[in-house]
Amino acid sequence: MKLDGKVALVTGCASGIGKATMEEFVRCGAHVIGADIDAEKGAAATREASNGGQPVEFVTVDLSSSDSVRRCAADVIARHPRLDILVNAAGYSVVGAFADNKPDYIDRVLAINLGGTIHLTQALLPAMIAAGKGKIVNVASDAGRVGSSGETAYAASKGGVIAFTKSLAREVARHSINVNCVCPGPTATPMLMSRPEKMLDAFLKAIPFKRFAEPREIADSILFFASPRSDYVTAQVLSVSGGLTFAG
Question: Quick one: angle between helices 103-110 and 152-172, nearest 10?
């Protein structure tokens, strides 16, 4: 798939799915701006993605802060008046029983996963509307579709992303803007690998393919929604879980 000449912003670019998506977009010819709260790792990831070829930019953003999100969006638009693709790939979660979750944690996971996605999309949407086209790809989670023990607040935030995707798609279809959602299952990212070994073993036993997804495999699905091959696809939620949640 080709993204030649397209300008794309990818959040969560420092690692995992965001990093893999940024790398895939660069290989497909897009001009990519990576965004992350970790300036050091994010800048290193963008340098690595460029690999001496297509330049990749970096911007810092704290998705838990609407002010930071708005500043990031203003910076991107100042650099590139046209934005063709937005990928909201950043995410945050810590495993623990919901009854034991501290209020600060609940507020943070909702702010980053749902609030950050909403605020960044809203801030960048006028540029897409003015252009009369655009692709928005939100990375939710199968936890938002079917639930996940020990991740109730996270699941709620990702369920919100799914609903946001469907509703926004209805609003902006008249502007030829596509809004779709990828829901990864357990994927070999730093966030998953931080989980207790018992949880990881349980996932592996339940996944029909008996392995975790690689970040690049999730990036491939994101690429489809970002490419011209999905021009007539919108408001869709794609589960990429190795069959773990086929009944969900």
Answer: 30
Whether 56 and 32 have beta carbons less than 8 Å apart is answered as yes
> H or E stretch including 49?
helix 39-50
| Side chain identity, residue 201 | D
Distances in Å between the Cα of 63 and the Cα atoms of 56, 58, 67, 89 are: 20, 15, 9, 11
Catalytic (active-site) positions: 154
CB 189 within 8 A of CB 15: yes
Rounded average pLDDT per 10-residue block, the chain, 248 residues = 95 96 96 97 94 85 98 96 96 93 98 98 98 98 89 97 98 98 85 73 78 90 98 96 71
Query: In which residue are the tokens 């690689």 written?
Result: 214
Dist. CA 84–CA 53, nearest whole Å: 21
Spans of all domains in the chain? 7-237
Type of residue numbered 205: K
pLDDT, tens only, 32-52: 999 999 999 999 999 999 866
d(CA 80, CA 35): 15
R_g of the chain computed on alpha carbons: 17
The architecture in CATH of the region 7-237 reads: 3-Layer(aba) Sandwich (3.40)
> Is 65 within 8 Å of 40 (Cβ atoms)?
no
Q: Cα 230–232–234 angle (5° rounding)?
A: 80
- Closest Cα to residue 33, out of 94, 97, 89? 89
pTM score, two decimals? 0.94
Q: Which residues contact 222 (CB under 8 A, 6 or more apart)?
A: 17, 21, 24, 87, 89, 137, 139, 182
